[in-house]
Protein backbone atom coordinates (compact mmCIF):
# COMPACT_ATOMS: atom_id res chain seq x y z
CA UNK A 1 0.00 0.00 0.00
CA UNK A 2 1.81 3.09 -1.20
CA UNK A 3 1.19 6.43 0.38
CA UNK A 4 -0.51 9.06 -1.70
CA UNK A 5 -0.22 12.81 -1.37
CA UNK A 6 -3.93 13.49 -0.92
CA UNK A 7 -5.00 14.77 2.48
CA UNK A 8 -8.12 12.99 3.73
CA UNK A 9 -10.55 14.76 6.03
CA UNK A 10 -12.09 13.17 9.09
CA UNK A 11 -15.31 12.95 7.07
CA UNK A 12 -13.47 11.09 4.27
CA UNK A 13 -12.17 8.54 6.78
CA UNK A 14 -15.61 8.09 8.38
CA UNK A 15 -17.25 7.68 4.97
CA UNK A 16 -14.64 5.11 3.94
CA UNK A 17 -15.12 3.27 7.23
CA UNK A 18 -18.88 3.18 6.67
CA UNK A 19 -18.50 1.72 3.17
CA UNK A 20 -16.08 -0.97 4.41
CA UNK A 21 -17.53 -1.74 7.85
CA UNK A 22 -19.31 -4.92 6.72
CA UNK A 23 -15.94 -6.44 5.81
CA UNK A 24 -14.06 -5.35 8.96
CA UNK A 25 -14.13 -7.11 12.35
CA UNK A 26 -16.99 -5.69 14.43
CA UNK A 27 -14.76 -4.71 17.37
CA UNK A 28 -12.49 -2.74 15.02
CA UNK A 29 -15.41 -0.84 13.47
CA UNK A 30 -16.61 0.12 16.95
CA UNK A 31 -13.12 1.19 18.06
CA UNK A 32 -12.53 3.19 14.88
CA UNK A 33 -15.84 5.04 15.19
CA UNK A 34 -15.00 5.86 18.82
CA UNK A 35 -11.50 7.02 17.87
CA UNK A 36 -12.83 9.25 15.08
CA UNK A 37 -15.07 11.18 17.49
CA UNK A 38 -11.95 13.15 18.49
CA UNK A 39 -9.80 15.47 16.40
CA UNK A 40 -6.66 13.94 14.93
CA UNK A 41 -3.67 15.14 12.94
CA UNK A 42 -3.72 15.07 9.16
CA UNK A 43 -1.04 12.38 9.23
CA UNK A 44 -3.18 10.08 11.39
CA UNK A 45 -6.24 10.63 9.19
CA UNK A 46 -4.23 9.78 6.07
CA UNK A 47 -2.72 6.71 7.74
CA UNK A 48 -6.20 5.50 8.75
CA UNK A 49 -7.69 6.06 5.31
CA UNK A 50 -5.28 3.90 3.34
CA UNK A 51 -5.79 0.54 5.11
CA UNK A 52 -9.56 1.08 4.73
CA UNK A 53 -9.31 1.81 1.01
CA UNK A 54 -10.40 -1.25 -1.01
CA UNK A 55 -10.38 -3.34 2.18
CA UNK A 56 -13.19 -5.46 0.72
CA UNK A 57 -10.93 -6.49 -2.19
CA UNK A 58 -7.95 -7.46 -0.04
CA UNK A 59 -6.94 -11.07 0.62
CA UNK A 60 -7.41 -12.57 4.07
CA UNK A 61 -3.69 -12.14 4.80
CA UNK A 62 -3.75 -8.53 3.63
CA UNK A 63 -6.83 -7.82 5.76
CA UNK A 64 -5.04 -9.18 8.82
CA UNK A 65 -2.08 -6.85 8.16
CA UNK A 66 -4.43 -3.91 7.70
CA UNK A 67 -6.30 -4.78 10.91
CA UNK A 68 -3.02 -4.77 12.83
CA UNK A 69 -2.03 -1.45 11.25
CA UNK A 70 -5.40 0.09 12.16
CA UNK A 71 -5.25 -1.20 15.74
CA UNK A 72 -1.74 0.24 16.18
CA UNK A 73 -2.88 3.63 14.90
CA UNK A 74 -5.82 3.90 17.29
CA UNK A 75 -4.16 2.42 20.38
Q: What does it look like?
A:
The protein has one domain (10-74). The chain is built from 4 helices and no strands. It has 75 residues and is mostly helical. It has helices at residues 10-20, 26-35, 42-52, 60-74.
What's the pLDDT, averaged over the residues? Answer: 94
Strand content of the residues, in percent? Answer: under 5%
* Count of discrete domains: 1
- Residue runs with pLDDT of under 50 for 5 or more positions: none
Largest sheet: none
- N-C termini distance: 21 Å
What form results from the Cα inertia axes? globular
What's the helical proportion of residues?
55-70%
The whole-angstrom Rg is 11 Å
- Please report the total strand number as a whole number: 0
> Number of helical runs?
4
What is the succession of H and E elements? HHHH
Structural class: mainly alpha
Spell out the key features of this protein:
63% helix, 75 residues, 4 helices, 0% strand, mainly alpha
Give the secondary structure arrangement, pairings included.
Blueprint: H1 10-20, H2 26-35, H3 42-52, H4 60-74
Helix pairs in contact: 1-3, 2-4, 3-4
Amino acid sequence: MGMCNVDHSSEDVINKLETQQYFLPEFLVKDLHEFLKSNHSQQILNELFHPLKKYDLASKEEREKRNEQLMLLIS
